[in-house]
Amino acid sequence: MDYNTAEIESRWKKYWSENNTYQVSDDTSKPKYYVLDMFPYPSGAGLHVGHPLGYIATDIFSRYKRQSGFNVLHPMGFDAFGLPAETYAIQTGVHPAKSTNDNIKKYIEQLSNIGFNYDWSRSVKTCDPSYYKWTQWIFTQLFDHYYDKDKDKAVSINKLIQKFEIGGSFSVNAAHALEEDFSAEEWKSFSDVEKNEILMQFRLAYQKIGYVNWCEALGTVLANDQIKDGLSDRGGHPVEKRAMKQWALRITAYAERLLNGLDLVDWSESLKAMQRNWIGRSEGAQVFFNIENNDKKIEVFTTRPDTIFGATYMVLAPEHDWVEELTTSDQKDKIDTYISYVNSRSEIERMSEVKEVTGEFTGSYAINPFTNERIPIWIGEYVLKDYGTGAIMAVPSDDDRDKAFATKFELPIIDVVDKTDYPGASLKDKVGKMINSDFLNGMEVKEAITAAIKAIEEKQLGAGKVNFKMRDTNFSRQRYWGEPFPIRYNEQGIAEALTLDQLPLMLPDTDDFQPAGGGKSPLARNTEWINEEAGYTRETDTMPAVAGSSWYFLRYMDANNPNELASKEKIEYWDSVDLYVGGTEHAVSHLLYSRLWHKFLFDIGIVSSREPFKKLINQGMIQGVIEFIYLQKEKGEGGQNIFVSQEVAQSNPDIEYAMIPVHIDFISSYGSKDSYLDLEGLKKFTKWWPSYKGAKFVSSTATYTDGGEDVDINMVTKSEVGKMSKRYYNVVNPDDMVEQYGADCFRMYEMFLGPIEQSKPWDTNGIDGVSKFLRKFWNLFVSENQLIVEDGTPSAEEMKVLHSTIKKVSEDIEKFSFNTAVSAFMVCVNELRALKCHKKLVLTPLVKLLAPFAPFLSEELWNKLEGEGSIHHQEYPKFDESYLKEDSIEYPISINGKKRASAMIPTDATKDEAEAIALGLETIQKWIEGKEIRKVIFVPKRMINIVV
RNA sequence: GCCCCUGUGGCGGAAUUGGUAGACGCGCUGGAUUCAAAAUCCAGUUCCUUCGGGAGUGGGGGUUCGAUUCCCCCCGGGGGUACCA
Questions:
Q1: How far apart are CA A13 and CA A742, in angstroms?
Q2: Which residue among A369, A699, A879, A911 is least enclosed by CB atoms within 10 Å?
Q3: A424: domain range?
Q4: A238, A217 in Cβ contact below 8 A?
Q5: Which nucleotides of B are covered by protein (CB under 7 A)?
Q6: Nearest nucleotide from residue A385 CA, by C1' atom
Q7: How far: A701 CA to B36 C1' (Å)?
Q8: Per-residue model confidence as pLDDT tens digits over A419-454
C-alpha cells in the first residue's frame, strides 16, 4: 500500500468514467453554478503545461461548488475551425477534419490524465454540423434583423420594410449606413435589387465593399488583430489593403450597450479597460462647414467644439470621396503626386514615420461658421479615412498634430485657450480659459464645450454627438475550414438567408485546399456545391473562427438538442456563466463578439441574461525559457560553423552572431541564469541538428570540435523568457509531469506556483515540496502497508488544526487564492504529524477538503476509509468557530511602533488589564525607563503599542 | 504618447479593514540514519552587528501611535493601444 500514483490514477479514471461520476443533470431543485473554461483550439502540438493552469483552477472550483451543494455545469469543448488545420492540410494533404479530430482525441486523453471533472457527454466542437447548424442559424437571424435606436434593440427586418412602405426612410431611427434618405413613394418605385441594397445598409449581418487586409501568401483576409506591424501575425507575410465585398456584423449598433454592460460584470479592471479602450467612446460635436462655391458641406467630428474660433484650416483624408471634386485645376498635379505618394507607402512606413508631417492644398476653401473666415482645405495622411468622418477642422493652437502641420505649411495659428493657470498641462488637456473666441471668452474649457455645442445646435450647424472608435469588422474569410455562410444569391444577385429546415449548410468534402485565387476561398472552385439549386448560387466565403466561439457556452446547456440551439427551460435554468477563466489573448475579439451575440440573442428572446459571463478571471501565461546558443555569422575555414558561449559572445561585441534555439532537453541547469550545454549536451545537439555536424564550440575556457577529442567544456547559453512553443523547442508536456509525479502533484504544484492571474516561467524547482506533502498526507493514513487510522475523540488542539484548515482553505477557494490554500494544507499536515494524529474524526473531513485539489489521492483514501460512493459527491466540510476560540493570545508589544516584546494576554482582557500586563514586562520596563508614557494603543486581538 | 497591471530574502511567493514583514515551498548550511549514496528525519537560514542593537518591502517625500498596505513625485519590469480629431 505504497503511494503509487500510476496505479491509483488508472483505477479511478476508469471508475469515474464507468460510473458517470461527473455527469451533470438538469436537477432544478439545486441551485446551479456554471463554471467555464475558454475552450482550446486543438493544435497538433498537444497540450503544454501552460494550458492546464486555468483548467485546474476551474476544476478545483467546480468540485468545491458541487461538494457545497450546487448543481455544477463544468463542460469542455473544442474551438475546432481555424487556419492552422487548413495550412497543415495544404502542406500535408491531411484533411482538416481528420487532423482536427485526431488532435481532439489527443487533447481529451491528456485532459483526462490530469483528472478533470468534465461531463464529456455535453462536449461541443465548432466544426460539427450539428453545432454549426446553430451558428449559421444565429447568423441568419442577424441577417434578418436591424437595430432600432428608439427601442434600443434588434427588430425584425420585415418591420423595417413596413415602415419604409409607410413613411420611407424618414420614419426610421436605426443604425445604418444609408447615404440618402427616401420617401415611401420612392421606396415603392425601387427595383428589388435597389431595395435589397438599401436593406443591406440596415441588416445586422450585412455585406459591404470595404478595404480589407489581404494577405497574398496566406490567400486570405485578416482581422486587424491578426496583423502585427503590417505583417501577418502567423508567418509574418506582407499584408496589403484591398477592396473586396465582405460580410460584416454591425457591432457598432451595440457600442453603447457593450460599453454600459461592462458595469454589470465582475471582471478585472484591466480587462474592462481594454474593452472600453477598444470601443473608444468619445463625446463631442458634429459640425458642418460650408464650402466656397460648392453646395456641399464638409462634416467633421470634434471633441473640442470650444476651439472652433481657432480652426484656421481643414484637412481631409487623402482617400476622402470629395478630394477630386474639391481639387482646383492648378492644384491637380500636386494633389495627384501627393496621392500617389500616399498609395506607395506601406502600412509599416506609415506607422514608423508618424512624426513626419505630409499634406497638400486642394485649392478650395471652406468657411469657418463662427469666424466667417475663408479657411483652406488640405489633404493629409494624418487624417484617417475610417475614423470619424475622414475630415477634421484643424485647430493648430490646441492640437499637436495640427500645430506641426500648420508650422510646416505656414498656416495661421490663433491662440484660443489660455493655459497660464495650468503650468504642467499639455495642449490636449481640456483645461484653461477661452480667449479670442467671442462669446466663449473667459469661460473654462469644460464650460465652453457645452456652450459651443449649444451654439452649434442653435445655428443649425450640427449637433452634439458621440463617436466610437470601434468599427464593424469584417466577418468573411476566404478559407475552406470554417462555417459556410447560410446565404444564397438569386438570379438577380440578391442575398437570401437559408431557413432553419435548410440548415445546416454542410461544408462540402474536398481534398484540395488551395485558395481559388482572386481573393476567393477554395469553395469557389466547387461548382457543384455553389450551384446546388437551380437559379441560386452559394456564398463561397466562410465565417471566422470567432463565430463558433461566440455562443458555445449556451450549447453546453443542452448540447445534444437537435431542434433548438438549446431549450428554453435549460437556458432559463443555467442562465449565464457564473465563472469564466481564460487568457488575456481573448480580451477583445472573443469576449466582445460573445457579448454582442448574447445581447442580440437577448433582443430576440432566446436568452434572458444581459451579459454572458458574470465573473471572469484572466489566468496568467505559463511561459517557457528559450535557450539560445550563439552562432558566429562568419563561418570558419572550410565553412565550419563556429558556436560560442554567452561570455565569449559578450566580450566580442563587434562580431555578429545568430541566435540558435536549442532543445531544452540538452541543457543542464535548465531555467537558471547560468544554464549551459555540457559535452554530452553538445553531442546531442549536433546529432539532433545534423547540419551542424563538425561544428566548433568555443567557451572562455575550452574549445571542442564535434567528432574530435572529448574536452571538458561548458557552453553557457542565453536564456530568455518567452512563449512556450514548438518553434523554440521548449515545450514542456504535462503528460511527462503526470507520469513522473502523478496528476495530483502536478495539479497542486501548478496551483502552488503563485496567484492564478500571474504569468511566470515554467520551472519544476519546487515540485518536490508538493510531492513530499502528498506522501506525508498519505502517511497520516497508511504506514508499512497498514491503515493506521484510529477511532477515538480528537483533542482540542487536533480539532483546532482541522477547523482552522477548513476555514482557510474554503476562504481561499472562494477568493481564487489557490496557492495559499495549498500552503494551508501543508501547514496542516506538518502540525498533525507533530501531534502524531491519526484520528478518523480529523482525517475524514480532511480527505473531503483535499478532494477538489487531489481527486485521485482523496478518492483512494476515501475508499480505504470505506466511505460510500465517490468522495466527489461528499459534502464539503464546514468549519466550526467554537474550535478556533482561544483563552489567550500572544500579543506583540511595541514601543513607538517598533516591536520590543510579546506576552500572552487573555482574549477577553480589557484595555487596562492588557496595559498592566504589558507595562509589567521586564523588557518593556527597560525600554520605558526614564521616559514619559504619552499614550497606550490597544487593538483587541492584534497588538499593543506604547508611545513614549 | 495614453490606459491598465506590477516591483517584498538566493528563488517562487505569504501578510484580513493600516497592526509581529518574510507564512508555505525550493535552495543552501549543519546534524541524525547509511559501508556509501538516494530517500527520510531534526535544527538553522532577510542583511549588518562591537551581540547592546541597527537597517530593511524599487527610490524620495507625506499622512499616522503605527505604512508592504493610504497620498504625492520619480525609476524599473510586463501588457494593451495609438496620427482616434
A1: 13
A2: A911
A3: 281-468
A4: yes
A5: 3-5, 11-15, 17, 19-21, 23-27, 39-42, 54, 65-67, 78-85
A6: B84
A7: 33
A8: 887 766 777 778 888 999 999 999 988 889 999 999
